[in-house]
Design brief:
It contains 13 helices and 15 strands. It has two domains: 257 residues, 3-Layer(aba) Sandwich (Aspartate Aminotransferase, domain 2), CATH 3.40.640.10; 108 residues, Aspartate Aminotransferase, domain 1 (Alpha-Beta Complex). It is an alpha/beta fold. Helix content is 40%, strand content 16%. The chain is globular. A hairpin with a 4-residue loop joins strand 9 and strand 10.
Length: 400
């Protein structure tokens, strides 16, 4: 990174000694994003789309402009393909309820990778339970990458949907989405990509990679909580049933009949998260100003440095690919529970994550009940990693 961006994040300025290494859970928010949210609340707070007065029209314009910003950012052809939700979880559930429950039948198969967060696992378990379809698991190789040979063997005309993460929230594995979608489409299957851990760290092009559905959250990309996006191909969105029924998404309501508005409004029932959407737009522009390749290069440098340093600690096991990995690294330390690791790090003002990371099937595959996890953002430095290494030595001194 050409310059340390820490000064642009108020929380990190307020606690200048904090080493924040839990970015996979949620990132910090820069002033430019907070300013736009504050501006909405203090300059033109109003509900959108139906107010015939200045501040409502201003709010409506700001809200809809974010569709254009997001569409450009992820490479979508049309702003109508951008649906605002509360986050990745809601986006995936929208596909599960709106598309899968009506297009997946008994005898069909849904493929889900062993790397998935519960948000991209449990909805498909429920769809299969309701429809009689079968959920099959794409296995993980010993090097923590997806077993593409196993994936190839699993594909058939029975497969209706393949659900994979762009980047694992545990191992940091970066999947080859372009190849995964190409292989699935050869059998007529659709592909949903969980982009929560990828969209702020790698360049994304939904058209080039031929994704059918793509979901992500604002709070993992320097934006506010409570907002996310679902991208879908036009013909798939048109075939989906609404998920939330109520105001805003209806066209005509009578005692005899209800008709619904076109995509994307059809899927945004009720008052949407207006301030959060505006904040999301500012976060995307913040990322674009820095440059996604610049971010990727910086985090790759940190990942490589951390991998090297952690690998030298006796009794520490890394669950992270040597190649094709990202800025998320999980590890365990022999004889020490991950919660104890995190607790001692906290005494030195170092924030890391510990637990199963909402990925219990993956924990079983790794042979552990939990891991400690570090994950980087644009404000992290080598000095942060050095501080972590010192803390981990302190952990060993206490427990071994």
């Amino acid at each position: 990174m050409k310059k340390n961006l820490r000064s642009q994040f108020p929380l990190l300025q307020a606690d200048n000694e904090l080493v924040y290494l839990d970015n996979a859970a949620t990132t910090q928010t820069p002033s430019v994003v907070l300013d736009e949210i504050y501006k909405y609340y203090t300059k033109y707070r109003a509900n959108i789309h139906r107010g015939i007065y200045d501040i409502s029209e201003h709010a409506s314009g700001a809200y809809e402009q974010v569709r254009e910003i997001v569409a450009r950012f992820i490479g979508a052809d049309d702003i109508s393909q951008i649906i605002f939700t509360r986050g990745t979880t809601e986006s995936i559930n929208l596909v599960a309820h709106g598309w899968a429950e009506t297009h997946v039948q008994k005898g069909d198969e849904i493929l889900v990778s062993e790397l998935e967060h519960h948000s991209n696992f449990v909805p498909w378990y429920e769809v299969c339970k309701k429809t009689g379809a079968q959920m099959k698991i794409i296995s993980l190789s010993d090097d923590f990458t997806l077993d593409m040979d196993a994936y190839a063997r699993m594909l058939s005309k029975k497969v209706k949907l393949v659900c994979v993460t762009a980047i694992s929230n545990v191992t940091g594995t970066t999947n080859d989405i372009s190849t995964i979608t190409r292989m699935a489409h050869e059998y007529g299957a659709k592909v949903l990509v969980d982009g929560a851990q990828g969209v702020a760290h790698r360049s994304c092009d939904v058209e080039k990679d031929d994704m059918d559905f793509f979901a992500f959250s604002g709070h993992k990309m320097y934006g506010p909580t409570g907002v996310g996006v679902l991208y879908g191909k036009p013909e798939l969105l048109a075939s989906m049933d609404p998920f939330l029924y109520g105001g805003g998404m209806v066209d005509l309501v009578s005692l005899e009949e209800v008709t619904y508005r076109d995509v994307p409004t059809r899927f945004e029932g009720g008052t949407p998260p207006i301030a959060q959407v505006i904040g999301l737009g500012a976060a995307v522009q913040f990322i674009e100003t820095i440059g996604i390749q610049e971010i990727c290069n910086h985090e790759r440098m940190l990942s490589d440095y951390a991998h090297e340093k952690l690998s030298k600690i006796d009794g520490l096991t890394l669950f992270h690919p040597v190649i094709n990995g990202s800025s998320i690294l999980s590890f365990s330390m022999k004889g020490i529970h991950p919660h104890d690791i995190a607790a001692i790090c906290n005494t030195q003002n170092i924030a890391i994550r510990a637990g199963h990371h909402c990925a219990q099937p993956l924990m079983k595959r790794l042979g552990v009940s939990a891991t400690a996890r570090i994950s980087f953002g644009i404000y992290n430095t080598k000095e942060d990693i050095d501080a972590l290494i010192l803390a981990l030595h302190a952990v060993q001194e206490k427990f071994i």
